[in-house]
Amino acid sequence: MTDLDKQTHGSKANADPSVRRRGGSIALKMIADRSLQFFSSQADELFDHVGDVFFDLAETSEDNEVQSMYFDAIKTVRNDRAVVSGRWLNAI
After folding, report:
1. What is the DSSP letter of 62?
2. Looking at residues 16-43, what average pLDDT do you find?
3. Cβ–Cβ contacts within 10 Å for residue 41, how many?
4. Can you give the residue ranges of every domain in the chain?
């Protein structure tokens, strides 16, 4: 048995399944937290990009009615951003 085997398999802590489960739970919690941070930042980027795209479309629109629709969409995205993002992150 190598020193690494002794360290990972030879200790009493590793022989106790409850210790391994707690360690696994901590690792899973860390992964979940990092994943939520990542998806939260991605959602922020998505909403920022959507707002920019709608603004560009409104700016190049030749029809005032269509332009108003894009500006309304920008307003809706800004107003509902936190709710939509929160629901999406809770569903993950």
Report:
1. S
2. 82
3. 10
4. 3-91
